[in-house]
Design a protein that fits this description.
mainly alpha; single chain; 22 helices; 567 residues
C-alpha cells in the first residue's frame, strides 16, 4: 500500500515537471550564446516594438546564422522584417532632415545580410541629395545678400530636382519664405532711405522707425542698422534742441526712435533712456481688452521705473524724471491692488466680488488707474447681480416647464421681477417674449386647426374667415396669413379657370378679339392674372399679324365685335 502511494506521488511530480511552462528569457540580458529558441523569441519581440535600438538588437541576434542551422529560415524571416523596419525608420528621419541619425541607423544593418546593399544605396542617395542641397543654399545666400531676386528664384528652383522631401519641401519652403523676408526688408530699407534723403526731421524720424522694424532674420538688417546709427546723431541732436526750448513731447517722440548706444553723449543717452521709459509706461496703459489687470502692465511700469533709476543724479531731466517716477510708482501700487483684487474676484463668489469691489474703490479719484478700477467694479457688480438673479430665472424656467397658459403666465410674472438695469434683465425679457409667444400659440392653435379642417372639407371661404381671426403681432399670424394666401389663390383659380379656359377655346376657334375681351375680365392681383395677361399678349400679337396681312392685301381691318378670326 505504501509503495502504491509513493509511486503515485512520484508519477504526479514527473507529470508536473514535464508539462510545466518554461520561464521566458530576459531579452535585455540575452546574448548570441543563449539557446536558439531564446534568440528567436527575443529577436521577434524586439522587432515587434518598432523602436530603433530594439530593431538593431533584433538584427544582431539573427544575423550570421549558418544555413545548416535548424532554425535558419526563422532567423532570416525576423532579420528581413527588422532590417526593413530600420530602413523605413531611417528614411523617415532622412526626409525630416536628420541625416546623421538616418545614416547611423541604416549603417547598423550588418554585412552579408540581404538588406545591407539596399541600405548602402539609400545612404548614398541621401548624402548626394544633401551635398546638392547645401550647394544650392551656398548659391542662394549671396544672391539674397546682393538683392538679386531673379537669380535667387532660379537657385530656388534647383530644390525641385532633388529627391528628398526635406529639400523638396522643408528647405524649399524655408528659402522661399526667406526670399519674401529679404524682399520686404529691402523694400522697407529703400523707403526709409527715400524718407531720410528729404533731410526733413519728421521724415528722418519715420525713416528710423521704418528701418528699425525690419525683420531681424533678414540680411538687410545689418545695412539698416548702419543707416540707423548714422541717422541717430541728427535725430538726437534735434531732440535735445526741442527739449531745451520746452517742446518736450516732440523731443521724447524723436528720442524714442534712437536705439540705446554707449557712443551717444551723456545728455543724449539720458534723453533716450527717459523716452524708452515713457514708451514702456505707455504700453502699460489699459486699453480695450487690456482693462483687466495683467502682469504685463505691471512689469512694463516696473521696467519704466527701473529705466528712470538708471539716469544719473545730475540728469538735465531730473525734475521730469522724479515726477514720472512718482506717478509710475503710484500706478504700480494701484495696479498691484487691482491685480490681486481681480485674482480674488475670479473665485466667483459674492463675498469675493464684494471684497474686490471694496479694494478697487480704494484707488482714489484722479489717479491714472481709477477708470480701470471703476470698470472692474462695474463688471464685478454685474456678476453679483447674476449670482442674485440667476435663481429667479431658474425658478421661472421651472414654473414654465408644464407648458400651460397658467404655468407660463406665472413664469412670466416671476421673470418680470428682475428690474431694469440688472445684468440678467435682457435674458429675462427674452424668456418672457418666448413664453408670451407660447401662450399665443396655445390660444390661437384651435382657430388655425379649425380653419385647416374647413379647408380640407372644401369650405375655403369659411376657412379664410376663420384664419383671419388671428391678428397681427401674434405668434401664428405669419402661418395663418400664408394659409389665407394659399386658400384665396385656390378660390380665385376656381373662379377664374373657367373664364380662362373659355377664352382659350375662343382663341383656338379664331375669335381672338372675343378671347382677349373675356380673358381681360381676370383682374390684376388674381391667381391667374399673369397667365391671362400672357395669353392676351400672345393673342394680340397674333391678331395684329393677321390684320397686317389683310392690310397688305387691301382688305379692311375690322374694328372688333365680330367672331371671325379677323376680329
Amino acid at each position: 500500500m505504501l509503495l502504491l502511494v509513493g509511486s503515485g506521488v512520484f508519477c504526479g511530480w514527473a507529470l508536473m515537471w514535464l508539462t510545466r511552462i518554461p520561464p521566458l528569457p530576459d531579452c535585455e540580458q540575452v546574448t548570441p550564446f543563449h539557446s536558439a529558441s531564446d534568440l528567436l523569441y527575443c529577436a521577434k519581440a524586439q522587432a515587434r516594438t518598432g523602436e530603433p535600438n530594439s530593431l538593431v538588437q533584433s538584427v544582431l541576434l539573427t544575423a550570421n546564422w549558418p544555413q545548416t542551422h535548424a532554425h535558419y529560415d526563422d532567423s532570416q524571416e525576423i532579420l528581413k522584417d527588422a532590417s526593413e523596419q530600420i530602413l523605413v525608420l531611417a528614411n523617415r528621419w532622412a526626409q525630416a532632415g536628420r541625416l546623421d541619425d538616418a545614416v547611423a541607423l541604416a549603417g547598423q544593418i550588418p554585412l552579408n545580410t540581404p538588406l545591407r546593399q539596399p541600405a548602402q544605396a539609400m545612404i548614398f542617395e541621401w548624402q548626394q541629395d544633401w551635398e546638392q542641397g547645401r550647394a544650392i543654399e551656398a548659391q542662394l545666400k549671396p544672391a539674397l545678400a546682393a538683392s538679386d531676386w531673379d537669380l535667387a528664384r532660379e537657385h530656388l528652383q534647383g530644390f525641385k530636382t532633388l529627391k528628398s522631401d526635406y529639400w523638396l519641401s522643408t528647405r524649399h519652403l524655408h528659402w522661399q519664405q526667406q526670399l519674401q523676408i529679404e524682399r520686404q526688408a529691402w523694400n522697407q530699407l529703400l523707403q526709409a532711405r527715400d524718407l531720410a534723403a528729404t533731410n526733413q526731421i519728421d521724415n528722418l524720424y519715420q525713416a528710423m522707425v521704418l528701418a528699425r522694424s525690419i525683420d531681424l532674420r533678414s540680411q538687410v538688417w545689418l545695412a539698416a542698422e548702419a543707416d540707423v546709427d548714422r541717422w541717430s546723431k541728427t535725430v538726437i541732436d534735434v531732440a535735445l534742441q526741442r527739449w531745451q526750448v520746452g517742446n518736450r513731447d516732440s523731443a521724447l517722440e524723436l528720442a524714442s526712435a534712437v536705439p540705446p548706444s554707449p557712443d551717444l553723449p551723456p545728455a543724449a543717452q539720458a534723453l533716450v533712456t527717459f523716452s524708452h521709459a515713457q514708451r514702456l509706461a505707455g504700453e502699460a496703459e489699459p486699453t480695450g481688452n487690456g482693462l483687466t489687470p495683467s502682469y504685463g502692465q505691471l512689469f512694463g511700469l516696473m521696467a519704466a521705473t527701473s529705466a528712470i533709476n538708471q539716469l544719473p543724479a545730475n540728469s538735465p531731466y531730473q525734475a521730469t524724471d522724479v515726477s514720472s517716477e512718482e506717478q509710475w510708482s503710484d500706478q504700480i501700487s494701484d495696479l498691484r491692488r487691482l491685480k490681486f483684487s481681480d485674482m480674488v474676484a475670479r473665485l466667483g463668489q459674492q463675498i469675493t466680488y464684494n471684497w474686490a469691489i471694496h479694494q478697487a474703490q480704494l484707488v482714489e479719484i484722479g489717479r491714472p488707474r481709477r477708470i480701470q478700477g471703476q470698470t472692474l467694479v462695474a463688471q464685478w457688480q454685474a456678476n453679483i447681480q447674476r449670482i442674485e438673479d440667476r435663481p429667479v430665472l431658474a425658478e421661472a424656467r421651472r414654473l414654465a416647464r408644464p407648458g400651460t397658459i397658467a404655468a407660463l403666465e406665472t413664469a412670466i410674472a416671476r421673470a418680470a421681477e428682475i428690474p431694469q438695469g440688472r445684468a440678467l434683465r435682457i435674458e429675462a425679457q427674452t424668456l418672457i417674449a418666448e413664453w408670451q409667444q407660447e401662450i399665443q400659440v396655445i390660444e390661437d392653435r384651435p382657430i388655425l386647426d379649425a380653419a385647416v379642417a374647413l379647408a380640407e372639407q372644401g369650405n375655403l371661404r369659411e376657412a379664410v374667415s376663420e384664419a383671419l381671426k388671428i391678428g397681427p403681432n401674434r405668434a401664428l399670424y405669419s402661418r395663418a396669413q400664408g394659409l389665407v394666401q394659399d386658400w384665396t389663390a385656390s378660390i380665385q383659380i376656381a373662379e377664374d379657370k373657367p373664364i380662362l379656359d373659355k377664352a382659350k377655346n375662343l382663341a383656338y376657334g379664331g375669335s381672338l378679339s372675343a378671347a382677349i375681351n373675356l380673358a381681360g375680365q381676370i383682374g390684376p392681383g388674381r391667381a391667374l392674372s399673369r397667365e391671362a395677361q400672357t395669353a392676351i399678349a400672345l393673342w394680340k400679337a397674333e391678331r395684329a399679324y393677321i390684320w397686317s396681312i389683310w392690310e397688305a392685301e387691301g382688305r379692311p381691318t375690322p374694328g372688333g365685335g365680330s367672331t371671325a378670326a379677323s376680329e
